[in-house]
Write a structure and sequence with these properties.
This protein is an alpha/beta fold. The protein is built from nine helices and ten strands. The protein has a five-stranded mixed sheet. Strand 2 and strand 3 form a beta hairpin. Helix 1 packs parallel to helix 2, helix 1 crosses helix 9 and helix 2 packs antiparallel against helix 3. The longest helix has 17 residues. The chain starts with a helix and ends with a helix.
Length: 275
Amino acid sequence: TLISVHAAEAGLKGLRLRWRNSGAVAYTDQVLLRRIVGNFLANAIRYTERGGVLIGCRRHAGRNWIEVWDTGIGIPADKTEVIFEEFSQLNDDARRRGSGLGLAIVAKTARLLNLEIRVRSRPGRGSLFAIELPPGRAAMVTETLPAPGGARSVRLALVEDNAELRNALVCALNTAGHEVVAAPDGATLFAQLDGQRPDAVISDYRLAARESGFDVIQAARAQFGESLPALLITGDTDPALVRSMADRGIPVCYKPLQVSALLAFISEATERRAR
């Protein structure tokens, strides 16, 4: 699901985003581990302009690790510890926009899970960020899988003018334990919300009557605050659209829609806002 969430941004930059499947089994908090790996992936894509990003699992020093490799700008050897400190900022134009807070949270989360992080980097050549995987057994995974409604339940605003697809999405999101306020257009949605703020808004891009999903998101953020998480769903692969939405902090999920990618977005966006 993390690959689906980050594929659009990588594709926009012309980067290859690859992964290698593994049969390794780990026993840890899956939400926190996903948050760590998601941060590694987001940073790898952000600071890579050419080449690609690879995620995989391999053994190192007798232990399994999830590793994220990139061909980006890299980090000086004397700065690899500094980047995990809160509010640290490297004196590099390409990284001036980052505060280092994301990696500070990663470091704290790894300590909470009692897991080790490895970093290797060469300026101008790329970086490796890895998180240790504590060993587990397949039986343990089966025993501890959460029920469909076990994730934190959130209230979602959904706009989709295709009734069949809208009903299918509502069914899938309800099954995952979420409350959904669904409508075919923005006006109907806001009437149903009746001034109550949702946890996130999800909209198809091309709606009827020349309305767009971006119009819906703009109106929702104007009413409920600019920090409201939002996602566009579209079958339009125009890079200009993706770039335009990325500039506004709106991720794009492509049709045919993968429900797993949609659920991953909801989980990451709402958890991030709750911190």
